[in-house]
Specification:
alpha/beta, Uracil-DNA Glycosylase, subunit E, nine-stranded mixed beta sheet, single chain, 9 strands, 9 helices
Length: 267
Protein backbone atom coordinates (compact mmCIF):
# COMPACT_ATOMS: atom_id res chain seq x y z
CA UNK A 1 0.00 0.00 0.00
CA UNK A 2 1.26 3.48 -0.94
CA UNK A 3 0.25 6.39 1.28
CA UNK A 4 -0.20 9.76 -0.41
CA UNK A 5 1.15 13.00 1.03
CA UNK A 6 -2.42 14.00 1.87
CA UNK A 7 -2.96 10.79 3.83
CA UNK A 8 0.35 11.13 5.65
CA UNK A 9 -0.46 14.70 6.68
CA UNK A 10 -3.92 13.79 7.95
CA UNK A 11 -2.71 10.77 9.92
CA UNK A 12 0.03 12.81 11.57
CA UNK A 13 -2.40 15.57 12.51
CA UNK A 14 -5.10 13.32 13.94
CA UNK A 15 -3.97 12.22 17.39
CA UNK A 16 -7.12 11.18 19.19
CA UNK A 17 -10.79 10.39 19.63
CA UNK A 18 -13.05 12.14 22.12
CA UNK A 19 -13.00 15.43 23.98
CA UNK A 20 -9.82 15.36 26.06
CA UNK A 21 -10.64 18.64 27.77
CA UNK A 22 -13.79 17.10 29.31
CA UNK A 23 -12.70 13.46 29.78
CA UNK A 24 -12.27 11.91 33.22
CA UNK A 25 -9.95 9.25 31.78
CA UNK A 26 -7.70 9.72 28.75
CA UNK A 27 -6.16 6.54 27.36
CA UNK A 28 -2.69 6.93 25.87
CA UNK A 29 -2.42 4.26 23.19
CA UNK A 30 0.14 3.33 20.57
CA UNK A 31 -1.76 3.78 17.31
CA UNK A 32 -5.15 3.14 15.74
CA UNK A 33 -5.57 -0.62 15.37
CA UNK A 34 -7.16 -2.37 12.39
CA UNK A 35 -6.89 -6.07 13.29
CA UNK A 36 -10.63 -6.41 13.90
CA UNK A 37 -11.73 -4.02 11.17
CA UNK A 38 -13.41 -5.45 8.03
CA UNK A 39 -10.97 -5.33 5.12
CA UNK A 40 -7.93 -4.77 7.32
CA UNK A 41 -5.58 -1.80 7.21
CA UNK A 42 -6.07 -0.89 3.54
CA UNK A 43 -9.86 -0.66 3.92
CA UNK A 44 -9.44 1.29 7.17
CA UNK A 45 -7.16 3.83 5.48
CA UNK A 46 -9.71 4.35 2.70
CA UNK A 47 -12.58 4.66 5.17
CA UNK A 48 -10.57 7.06 7.30
CA UNK A 49 -9.97 9.34 4.32
CA UNK A 50 -13.37 9.02 2.68
CA UNK A 51 -15.64 9.10 5.72
CA UNK A 52 -13.93 9.80 9.03
CA UNK A 53 -11.76 12.70 7.84
CA UNK A 54 -14.90 14.70 7.04
CA UNK A 55 -15.78 14.64 10.76
CA UNK A 56 -12.53 16.20 11.92
CA UNK A 57 -12.63 19.35 13.99
CA UNK A 58 -9.86 21.29 15.68
CA UNK A 59 -9.21 21.99 19.34
CA UNK A 60 -6.27 24.28 19.70
CA UNK A 61 -3.69 24.63 16.98
CA UNK A 62 -3.85 21.59 14.73
CA UNK A 63 -5.21 19.23 17.38
CA UNK A 64 -7.78 17.00 15.70
CA UNK A 65 -10.30 14.65 17.24
CA UNK A 66 -12.25 11.95 15.48
CA UNK A 67 -15.64 10.50 16.38
CA UNK A 68 -16.00 6.90 15.16
CA UNK A 69 -17.85 3.73 16.12
CA UNK A 70 -15.67 1.08 17.72
CA UNK A 71 -15.54 -2.66 16.91
CA UNK A 72 -16.83 -4.74 19.81
CA UNK A 73 -14.50 -7.66 18.97
CA UNK A 74 -11.40 -5.71 20.06
CA UNK A 75 -9.99 -7.11 23.33
CA UNK A 76 -8.24 -3.79 23.89
CA UNK A 77 -11.56 -1.91 23.77
CA UNK A 78 -13.23 -4.53 25.95
CA UNK A 79 -10.56 -4.14 28.64
CA UNK A 80 -10.82 -0.35 28.61
CA UNK A 81 -14.60 -0.52 28.76
CA UNK A 82 -14.59 -3.02 31.64
CA UNK A 83 -12.32 -0.64 33.53
CA UNK A 84 -14.44 2.41 32.73
CA UNK A 85 -17.64 0.65 33.81
CA UNK A 86 -15.99 -0.51 37.04
CA UNK A 87 -14.88 3.07 37.77
CA UNK A 88 -18.30 4.44 36.93
CA UNK A 89 -20.18 2.03 39.20
CA UNK A 90 -17.36 1.34 41.68
CA UNK A 91 -17.87 -2.39 41.25
CA UNK A 92 -15.35 -5.15 40.58
CA UNK A 93 -17.89 -7.48 38.95
CA UNK A 94 -16.96 -6.07 35.54
CA UNK A 95 -13.69 -8.04 35.74
CA UNK A 96 -15.46 -11.37 36.21
CA UNK A 97 -16.89 -13.68 33.56
CA UNK A 98 -19.84 -11.83 32.08
CA UNK A 99 -23.36 -13.14 31.64
CA UNK A 100 -25.16 -12.58 28.35
CA UNK A 101 -26.70 -9.47 29.85
CA UNK A 102 -23.28 -8.33 31.05
CA UNK A 103 -21.83 -8.69 27.56
CA UNK A 104 -24.71 -6.67 26.18
CA UNK A 105 -23.90 -3.92 28.67
CA UNK A 106 -20.22 -4.06 27.66
CA UNK A 107 -21.00 -3.97 23.93
CA UNK A 108 -23.39 -1.07 24.41
CA UNK A 109 -20.72 0.86 26.27
CA UNK A 110 -18.14 0.28 23.53
CA UNK A 111 -20.47 1.26 20.70
CA UNK A 112 -22.28 4.18 22.32
CA UNK A 113 -20.19 5.60 25.15
CA UNK A 114 -16.47 4.80 24.84
CA UNK A 115 -14.47 7.90 23.81
CA UNK A 116 -17.73 9.87 23.89
CA UNK A 117 -18.83 10.01 27.54
CA UNK A 118 -16.12 10.95 30.02
CA UNK A 119 -13.31 9.21 28.15
CA UNK A 120 -10.97 9.89 25.25
CA UNK A 121 -7.87 8.43 23.64
CA UNK A 122 -4.61 9.91 22.40
CA UNK A 123 -2.26 7.78 20.29
CA UNK A 124 1.50 8.21 20.20
CA UNK A 125 2.06 7.10 16.59
CA UNK A 126 0.09 8.19 13.52
CA UNK A 127 -0.20 5.22 11.16
CA UNK A 128 -2.87 2.55 11.35
CA UNK A 129 -1.55 -0.97 12.06
CA UNK A 130 -3.21 -4.36 12.27
CA UNK A 131 -0.71 -5.55 14.91
CA UNK A 132 2.49 -4.26 16.45
CA UNK A 133 4.62 -6.29 14.01
CA UNK A 134 2.49 -5.96 10.87
CA UNK A 135 3.60 -3.45 8.24
CA UNK A 136 1.69 -2.69 5.03
CA UNK A 137 3.14 0.65 3.84
CA UNK A 138 5.40 0.16 0.82
CA UNK A 139 6.67 3.74 0.67
CA UNK A 140 7.58 4.08 4.37
CA UNK A 141 10.55 2.36 6.00
CA UNK A 142 9.30 0.46 9.05
CA UNK A 143 12.49 0.79 11.11
CA UNK A 144 12.89 4.51 10.41
CA UNK A 145 9.24 5.12 11.25
CA UNK A 146 9.43 3.41 14.64
CA UNK A 147 12.76 5.08 15.43
CA UNK A 148 11.07 8.46 15.07
CA UNK A 149 8.79 7.55 17.98
CA UNK A 150 11.42 5.87 20.14
CA UNK A 151 11.94 8.36 22.95
CA UNK A 152 14.20 6.06 24.96
CA UNK A 153 17.25 7.03 22.88
CA UNK A 154 18.71 10.50 22.53
CA UNK A 155 19.37 9.87 18.85
CA UNK A 156 15.78 9.17 17.81
CA UNK A 157 15.07 10.26 14.25
CA UNK A 158 13.02 13.30 13.37
CA UNK A 159 11.35 15.00 10.41
CA UNK A 160 8.80 17.77 9.85
CA UNK A 161 5.74 15.50 10.17
CA UNK A 162 7.02 13.85 13.33
CA UNK A 163 7.91 17.23 14.85
CA UNK A 164 4.47 18.56 13.99
CA UNK A 165 2.83 15.57 15.67
CA UNK A 166 4.97 16.04 18.78
CA UNK A 167 3.74 19.65 19.02
CA UNK A 168 0.14 18.49 18.61
CA UNK A 169 0.57 15.76 21.23
CA UNK A 170 2.05 18.28 23.66
CA UNK A 171 -0.92 20.57 23.04
CA UNK A 172 -3.34 17.68 23.49
CA UNK A 173 -1.94 16.72 26.88
CA UNK A 174 -1.97 20.36 27.99
CA UNK A 175 -5.75 20.41 27.44
CA UNK A 176 -6.39 17.55 29.88
CA UNK A 177 -7.66 18.84 33.27
CA UNK A 178 -5.39 18.12 36.21
CA UNK A 179 -8.22 16.19 37.91
CA UNK A 180 -8.31 13.69 35.02
CA UNK A 181 -6.35 10.46 34.75
CA UNK A 182 -3.97 9.74 31.87
CA UNK A 183 -3.73 5.96 31.52
CA UNK A 184 -1.15 4.60 29.08
CA UNK A 185 -1.56 1.14 27.58
CA UNK A 186 1.53 -0.59 26.18
CA UNK A 187 5.07 0.61 25.58
CA UNK A 188 5.33 1.97 29.11
CA UNK A 189 9.12 2.48 29.03
CA UNK A 190 8.90 4.48 25.83
CA UNK A 191 5.91 6.47 27.05
CA UNK A 192 7.69 7.26 30.28
CA UNK A 193 10.54 8.69 28.18
CA UNK A 194 8.00 10.59 26.07
CA UNK A 195 6.47 12.30 29.12
CA UNK A 196 9.95 13.09 30.42
CA UNK A 197 10.57 14.79 27.07
CA UNK A 198 7.55 17.08 27.23
CA UNK A 199 7.61 17.44 31.05
CA UNK A 200 11.34 17.50 31.97
CA UNK A 201 10.67 17.73 35.73
CA UNK A 202 8.19 14.88 35.97
CA UNK A 203 9.14 11.82 38.00
CA UNK A 204 7.69 8.32 37.91
CA UNK A 205 7.60 5.64 40.59
CA UNK A 206 7.33 1.91 39.94
CA UNK A 207 4.74 -0.15 41.80
CA UNK A 208 4.42 -3.93 41.64
CA UNK A 209 0.75 -4.87 41.63
CA UNK A 210 1.41 -8.62 41.28
CA UNK A 211 4.27 -10.99 40.49
CA UNK A 212 3.59 -10.48 36.77
CA UNK A 213 2.43 -6.88 36.63
CA UNK A 214 4.23 -3.59 37.35
CA UNK A 215 3.17 -0.05 36.55
CA UNK A 216 4.67 3.45 36.64
CA UNK A 217 2.81 6.40 38.15
CA UNK A 218 3.63 10.08 38.28
CA UNK A 219 4.27 12.09 41.43
CA UNK A 220 3.15 15.36 39.81
CA UNK A 221 -0.20 16.67 41.07
CA UNK A 222 -0.62 18.63 37.83
CA UNK A 223 -0.62 15.43 35.72
CA UNK A 224 -2.04 12.15 37.04
CA UNK A 225 -0.36 9.54 34.85
CA UNK A 226 -0.29 5.76 35.11
CA UNK A 227 1.77 3.72 32.62
CA UNK A 228 0.64 0.12 32.16
CA UNK A 229 1.34 -2.89 30.00
CA UNK A 230 -0.93 -3.39 27.00
CA UNK A 231 -4.55 -4.14 27.79
CA UNK A 232 -5.33 -7.68 26.67
CA UNK A 233 -5.63 -11.20 28.06
CA UNK A 234 -2.09 -12.23 27.16
CA UNK A 235 -0.25 -9.21 28.58
CA UNK A 236 -2.07 -8.38 31.83
CA UNK A 237 -5.33 -10.37 31.99
CA UNK A 238 -8.49 -9.50 33.88
CA UNK A 239 -7.03 -10.35 37.29
CA UNK A 240 -4.33 -7.70 36.90
CA UNK A 241 -6.84 -5.28 35.39
CA UNK A 242 -8.80 -5.61 38.64
CA UNK A 243 -5.64 -4.77 40.60
CA UNK A 244 -5.13 -1.73 38.38
CA UNK A 245 -8.69 -0.64 39.16
CA UNK A 246 -7.98 -0.83 42.89
CA UNK A 247 -4.75 1.12 42.45
CA UNK A 248 -6.54 3.85 40.47
CA UNK A 249 -8.97 4.36 43.35
CA UNK A 250 -6.06 4.78 45.77
CA UNK A 251 -4.13 6.93 43.28
CA UNK A 252 -7.12 9.23 42.92
CA UNK A 253 -7.39 9.69 46.67
CA UNK A 254 -3.68 10.39 47.06
CA UNK A 255 -3.76 13.05 44.33
CA UNK A 256 -7.05 14.72 45.28
CA UNK A 257 -6.66 18.31 46.39
CA UNK A 258 -10.26 19.24 47.03
CA UNK A 259 -13.36 17.00 46.97
CA UNK A 260 -15.41 19.67 45.19
CA UNK A 261 -13.27 19.17 42.11
CA UNK A 262 -13.68 15.41 41.89
CA UNK A 263 -17.02 14.45 43.41
CA UNK A 264 -18.83 14.49 40.07
CA UNK A 265 -16.14 12.65 38.16
CA UNK A 266 -16.09 9.01 37.10
CA UNK A 267 -13.01 7.84 38.95
Amino acid sequence: MILTNEELLLFHRCVGIGNVSAADVVIFGNEFGTASSPGGTKASVSKFMDVFAKKLFSIGEGFNLLDISSPVSSTFLQFISRLMLALKHNEERFFDDLTIQGRQVLNDYIMNHLYKDNSAIINLKPLLQATEDAWEYDNIDKIEYHNKYNFKTRSHMSDSLRDMRLRILTKAFSLIPKESLILASGGKENKKAFFQTIYPTIRFHETKLSDSYKIYHSDNIEKKIILSNYFDNRTIGLSNLKLLFRFILEFRQSKTQSPKHTSARLF
